[in-house]
């Protein structure tokens, strides 16, 4: 739509007029037309968020990429002109603020180097059989029924069990984690008290677990092969990690790696079910024992309808200019990954899902020093989940009218509340 047709984000109001109705219910189901309009008419746009905080939305690919790498845009909420209004509810009071997504160099460099020593591609690759086992166990839970809700029965539990296993959370405690994490997801934008309580419970649990593992490592000189033990070992042999930093690190691994992966699987399965020709293409390639299309396909699903709609908060530490728009120091900047990844100036036919897309340097995992640390794990989980689903339930189909599917209206993440599916029951 051109300017004459009015602003689909509400009221024709860009730059000064009444607030655009971004973040409405319709917007949550399909934000892409509004993003296309913003990219074209107001690529760096100041808006009021549902929380009341005002922030700049950056929607064009080159501006987004540049902003993600611009270190004058700090991740530290103390740089917000009104600190305390952003972040995960309860995070501040639980003392979890010093994690990777909230800090800048040199602290960020030190902590990221430390965790990179423990979170290695080798450790992730060694985890592949376990992810496959978890995936198959979850499918076993509903395969004979002929129907399921792919979010609650599949996409939701897989990443939480996977990251718990990787961190070294004992099996008997993992269901508690599942409940706390569920509380955080379900009420992401809702009753803040419940989320704050879950955040505190997770914090308390992690502090105790880290303490226990540190003691175990001291006693038997070697210790476990889990990520927390790896982190403690790395910190004891180099840069030091305080107890508070260790807890915040585990917390960020949990929450950065959880809802994102739920939505990669959920949004990915949804996109495949809505594009039968692409799904058939993927199924025949899998049946022929090829993995190439699965690999490019996961990247394309991330670009096309990725889990992280907006990158996490950034704050201008100086007056600066993005895409020709002056931004005053202290203002928050939100980079809209979902808009940048559909920029027609960067991607040919950006609204078309093409699992074989080659030129696909999407921003779904971010860019620059905060580039997703868990990308190898996310890819492993995403590939395994979709490969096992399509292989074991070959006639998987949507079990609801597509227009009736409900999307969560959270700010940062994009994902479905439920994804009902049907299929021929199998043993
Ligand atoms: C950072 C996306 C899965 C851990 C990020 C960022 C994005 C992202 C966009 C950068 C945020 C920013 O710059 O504001 C995703 C997506 C995932 C995923 C789309 C799934 C499909 C995971 C997993 C883990 C993880 C499984 C770990 C278990 C992290 C961490 C950071 C991060 C620790 C912060 C890195 C830093 O600040 O240096 N992720 N992520 N992510 N991600 Fe992921």
From TrEMBL:
CDD domains per UniProt: CYP107-like
Q: Which UniProt keywords apply?
A: Heme, Iron, Metal-binding, Monooxygenase, Oxidoreductase
Coiled coil, from the record: none
Region: Disordered; residue ranges are: 73-92
Signal sequence, start to end: none
List the GO molecular function terms.
heme binding; iron ion binding; monooxygenase activity; oxidoreductase activity, acting on paired donors, with incorporation or reduction of molecular oxygen
What Pfam families would the database entry show? p450
UniProt superkingdom: Bacteria
Q: Which family does it belong to?
A: Belongs to the cytochrome P450 family.
Q: What name appears for this protein in its UniProt entry?
A: Cytochrome P450 hydroxylase
What organism is the protein native to? Streptomyces termitum
